[in-house]
Predict the structure.
Amino acid sequence: MYEIYLDVFVASGLLQGIPLEEFDRMLQSTNPRIQDFSKGQVIYEKGQPFKEFAFILSGRVDDIEVKKSGNRALIETLYPGQVIGLMRWFSSYDKVAPTQSIAQCDCSLMFFSIQNLVSPPEPIAAYKQQLTVNLFRKVCDRVATLFDSLYFLRSRTIREKIAIFLYKQVEEENSCTIFLKYSRDELADYLYVPQPSLSRELASMKAEGIIDFYRETIRILDLEKLRSCF
């Protein structure tokens, strides 16, 4: 019944320590529901109560902070294998959406009830504890990602924000050639800077021989100069 989703669950790390042959039976016991969303469709409005948490099966989801002025800031983009709403369930905060979650493209999500997850039938109870551990690992990974974004908020200049972002990508990819997952507008939202200012600063860094870029590809030409920017 759920075997078609096995690959994305394996890639997510949620099945570590759980026999794959038990995957379908375990999911059936949690009685999840699957819902498709079209590009631009709102999945959660800010402040909406979380009755379930959602596992992304396909597509991409943007977490957006909409300010009173109407300006939008991209908090993060979530991909297949990541989870929406899990941190709130395991925290002492109100179980409501802290941001607006929007489908960046057509996507499919699997929704779980916490009650069904923590109270499975006895035959698969042996795997409940391992699944819970894996979910907590997901929570910690998400917290670490959000903690990284604090560096951008603390940075004093646009160049500093760009440099920190690019240097982090170099470390993650172990390469001075970076293939951006974001469009220019999305990167501006992610770094909390105006898009025209971002483009001007990238052009200045290119003129100074720090970077070169073409569309979504950025090459770091001088790593030491980049490091000196922050």
User: Anything to note?
Assistant: DSSP finds nine helices and eleven strands in the chain.
